[in-house]
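In response to the reviewer comment on reproducibility (Comment 2.3), we provide here a single inverse folding case reported in full, input and output, so that an independent group could reproduce the run without further information from us. The structure tokens appear first.
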């Protein structure tokens, strides 16, 4: 970095001056967050532990400390509930002000209190009652405190405000309502001649306007600014000195600036010093800034440093189960890292977050939409005006903030819109979430074909501030691939924000620590309350990956080249990397215990600018053509890596289809055992082998029992195959023993299935070959010769008792379950999970993911684990979905409303199609991948095949 030589003299003065550099001093009266608290005296007016003096940790929400009553904001919509909990709390403690602070300006700061706050210091009122629970506020207590002696503070907090608009904006809301001093409290000492506040407009080219509020000036003072890279201590900074006149705006152009972007979040420390008339430094403050230019262009887009933004965002509340809205820096960093891990680049909330979360967004690179609270109702103009000022004065210098938001879904007061630019020298654009306002359409929860006058046929910049609602297992990744492809194809699309980041379950102090998400109101997260990752976490990560591998199938023609698209905003693909691995996945037939790596190496990425597509090439292929090891593997794995060395996405592709894979595994087996035979009775047909006997019912050709002979144990897979998504009626049943010793049963049907052939080999392996929807033989499931039929599920189902199952080990896409419209994010490999009965988003304790029950994609084989009843099934058909039991519906869901589509009858199913799941909107309003499959059968078609192999040995 270049610097001005004249500054060396100033820097020498700073170090050697007889007047010491006076920094702002801070003394906490509370702790700093959830895991760092200070004990105060406390009395609560109503509810638990009320009417007596006790102790409470500060900061905290008093409900989680055992006081008052829990209330969710939708109380006003509940029948029979007239009022929410209305407690008042009184806090007291003593503190000592350092004697050395005498002669300085002392302010008492509150970072957040819910909701009306009255403060007394040594029995004197500190000032007017503060109203509004999400904002930082302060009082000048210089004249009230005693220096070097004990002082008393009393804070009176009303959970509900005496201002109706505050209650309407904050309390009648779709979130938990808490009371208390939930963010830190501190004293701050500054010299009488001081820098009161700084607001910086630092542009991407290095041009800066510094707005300074200065107090106690006597004349002939100077202001000095020194700039260095954040965290750099050895670097000599650039500097600028201004004479202080009547203007409070100071300008300078800084050289060799690296602009801030979400992909390269370069930060600078700006040290601003106030010098008295003698040139002595009397006060210094440091702000962390980023140089970037935010520009909203009507009928065009939102630009950052001249680049049009597409925000991949999430809505996040400041929330933790153990603290309510009391969090800490560690939680903020954890959340920011998890959001970045999903390849998101933007965040929104319904109110200003903890400042340490904005710090994390600044340093890690997340765009932020900072919102004045107002959930469907607005503050009155007088109150709202004060809160706008408080919000912007705290947050104005954070480079992550690219938009201001005035309320939510009708919770805006247009009279306060003009105040945002009054306090923000950057004049960032102001939005009204949910509305089409000031050339930016933020329409919530658009349907896939949202049209006339809006996105499809509109001419406004489009950025839904809420979409892909994630209640329970619905939303987020479900249907996102369609929505995102459609949105990003439009030049007026500026991004979108999913609802929401985490399930907001609070650990109830009045229910023995049980987690409570208030029924269906709060389990909307893509992560659980303790940040457990749901399946959609990985779906979003893949769909929003900045390095996209275009659709790829590995065939014998594959030459190591494939198309990639750069979907970064600012990064050239040459700054990134990719690596591959060839994985071998031996089946239980081969005694394989897990995945092994056959080969690995680098992938050469083309130097693509954002938005460009080109060919990547596996280095081994470029060097020597086709590597000998490649087709010895089963799965190709590609991992994309960002410039910082962190993985952004891993994708896998099968090298062998299911049938080729199974044939290769079987080819290595030597068939042993005595030849089988067939036994027929009045009600059963029994296929015998030396290892296993299989009994079928004559009435419908379903499995009656499976006997494993070595221990005479019955494997409880039975009552199938029954049809799913079709009808079929048994026409004939024939059995025979073939020369090779196979015992064969052939069932022919009328309807959806043409035939199912069962073949029990001498070694005890049982094959099932089914032909569905075959017009060639005159079968088929439909009356017309030419028919289109919509199906939600298609295949066969069996019964198997849950209590016999302890887990599952399988090869296919995993480890998470899927829906038809939420398959991205799962990868090919060998996976294992223990049995669990997790209900997504609903738990009285920590959630266990991945969920065990549900649909699993692209089955190759699966071992159903159990103490005595384990068995293995293999697929000889590509694209088979394996349904494992039926997930429970959430107990807290709305009455009569199912969160999931109906599952087939039975317990274990093998399906060629499965249903999609909704995301707030009905499935019919989603994209094509969410719609029911259309089956078209013509005369002469060979139909569909579904082949399975069972190993009960």
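Designed residues, in position order:
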């Amino acid at each position: 970095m270049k610097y001005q030589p004249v500054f060396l003299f100033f820097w020498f003065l700073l170090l050697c001056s007889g007047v010491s550099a006076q920094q702002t001093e801070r003394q906490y009266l509370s702790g700093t967050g959830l895991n760092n608290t200070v004990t105060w005296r406390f009395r609560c007016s109503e509810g638990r532990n009320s009417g007596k003096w006790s102790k409470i940790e500060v900061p905290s929400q008093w409900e989680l400390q055992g006081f008052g009553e829990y209330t969710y904001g939708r109380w006003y919509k509940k029948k029979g509930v007239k009022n929410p909990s209305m407690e008042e709390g009184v806090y007291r403690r003593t503190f000592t002000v350092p004697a050395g602070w005498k002669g300085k300006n002392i302010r008492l700061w509150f970072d957040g209190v819910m909701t009306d706050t009255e403060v007394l210091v040594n029995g004197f009122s500190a000032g007017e009652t503060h109203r509004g629970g999400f904002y930082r506020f302060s009082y000048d207590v210089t004249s009230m405190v005693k220096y070097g002696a004990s002082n008393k503070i009393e804070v009176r907090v009303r959970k509900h405000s005496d201002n109706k608009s505050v209650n309407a904006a904050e309390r009648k809301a779709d979130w938990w309502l808490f009371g208390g001093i939930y963010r830190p409290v501190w004293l701050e000492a500054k010299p009488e001649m001081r820098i009161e506040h700084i607001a910086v407009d630092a542009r991407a080219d290095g041009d800066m306007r510094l707005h300074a509020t200065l107090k106690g000036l006597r004349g002939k003072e100077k202001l000095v600014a020194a700039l260095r890279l954040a965290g750099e201590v050895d670097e000599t900074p650039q500097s600028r000195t201004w004479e202080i006149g009547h203007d409070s705006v100071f300008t300078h152009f800084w050289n060799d600036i690296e602009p801030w972007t979400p992909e390269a979040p370069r930060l600078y420390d700006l040290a601003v010093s106030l010098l008295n008339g003698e040139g002595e430094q009397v006060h210094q403050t440091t702000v962390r800034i980023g140089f970037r230019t935010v520009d909203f262009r009507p009928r065009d887009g939102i630009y950052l440093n001249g680049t049009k933004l597409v925000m991949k965002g999430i809505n996040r509340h400041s929330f933790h189960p153990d603290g309510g809205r009391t969090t800490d820096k560690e939680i903020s960093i954890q959340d920011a890292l998890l959001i970045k891990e999903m390849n998101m680049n933007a965040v929104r909330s319904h109110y200003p977050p903890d400042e340490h979360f904005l710090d994390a967004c600044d340093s890690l690179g997340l765009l932020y939409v900072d919102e004045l609270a107002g959930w469907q109702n607005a503050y009155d103009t007088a109150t709202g005006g004060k809160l706008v000022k408080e919000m912007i004065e705290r947050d104005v210098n954070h480079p992550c903030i690219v938009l201001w938001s005035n309320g939510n879904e009708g919770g805006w007061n247009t009279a306060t819109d003009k105040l945002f630019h009054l306090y923000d020298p950057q004049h960032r654009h102001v939005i009204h979430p949910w509305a089409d306002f000031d050339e930016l359409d933020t329409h919530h929860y658009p349907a896939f074909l949202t049209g006339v006058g809006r996105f499809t046929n509109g001419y406004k910049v489009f950025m839904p501030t809420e979409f892909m609602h994630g209640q329970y297992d619905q939303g987020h990744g479900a249907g996102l691939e369609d929505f995102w492809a459609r949105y990003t194809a439009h030049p007026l699309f500026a991004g979108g924000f999913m609802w929401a980041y985490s399930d907001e379950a609070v650990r109830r102090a009045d229910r023995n620590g049980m987690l409570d998400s208030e029924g269906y109101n709060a389990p909307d997260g893509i992560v659980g309350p303790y940040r457990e990752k749901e399946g959609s976490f990985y779906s979003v990560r893949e769909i929003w990956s900045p390095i996209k591998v275009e659709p790829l199938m590995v065939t014998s023609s594959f030459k190591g080249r494939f198309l990639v698209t750069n979907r970064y905003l600012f990064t050239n693909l040459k700054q990134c990397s990719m690596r591959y691995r060839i994985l071998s996945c031996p089946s239980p037939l081969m005694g394989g215990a897990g995945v092994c790596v056959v080969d690995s190496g680098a992938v050469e990425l083309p130097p693509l600018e954002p938005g460009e597509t080109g060919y990547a090439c596996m280095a081994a292929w470029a060097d020597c053509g086709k590597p000998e090891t490649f087709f010895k593997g089963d799965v190709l794995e590609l991992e994309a890596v960002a410039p910082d060395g962190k993985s952004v996405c891993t994708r896998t592709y099968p090298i062998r289809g299911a049938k080729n894979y199974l044939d290769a595994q079987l080819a290595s087996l030597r068939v042993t055992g005595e030849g089988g035979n067939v036994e027929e009775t009045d009600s059963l047909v029994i296929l015998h082998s030396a290892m296993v006997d299989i009994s079928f019912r004559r009435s419908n050709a379903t499995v009656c029992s499976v006997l494993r002979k070595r221990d005479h144990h019955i494997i409880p897979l039975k009552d199938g195959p029954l049809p799913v998504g079709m009808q079929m009626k048994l026409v004939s049943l024939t059995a025979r023993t073939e020369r090779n010793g196979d015992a064969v049963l052939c069932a022919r049907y009328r309807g959806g299935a043409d035939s199912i052939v069962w073949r029990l080999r001498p070694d005890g392996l049982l094959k099932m070959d089914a032909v569905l929807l075959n017009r060639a033989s005159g079968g088929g499931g439909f009356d017309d010769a030419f028919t289109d039929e919509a199906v939600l599920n298609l295949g066969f189902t069996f019964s198997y008792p849950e209590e016999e199952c302890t887990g599952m080990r399988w090869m296919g896409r995993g480890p998470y379950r899927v829906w038809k419209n939420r398959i991205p994010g799962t990868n090919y490999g060998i996976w294992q999970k223990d049995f669990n009965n997790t209900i997504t988003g609903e738990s009285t304790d920590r959630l266990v993911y991945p969920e065990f029950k549900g649909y699993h994609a692209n089955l190759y084989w699966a071992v159903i684990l159990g103490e005595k009843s384990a068995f293995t099934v293999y697929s000889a058909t590509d694209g088979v979905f394996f349904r494992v039991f039926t997930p429970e519906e959430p107990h807290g869901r709305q009455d009569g409303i199912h969160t999931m589509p109906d599952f087939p009858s039975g317990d274990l199913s093998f399906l060629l199609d499965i249903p999609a799941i909704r995301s707030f909107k009905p499935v019919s309003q989603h994209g094509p991948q969410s719609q029911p499959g259309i089956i078209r059968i013509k005369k002469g078609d060979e139909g569909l095949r579904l082949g399975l192999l069972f190993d009960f040995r």
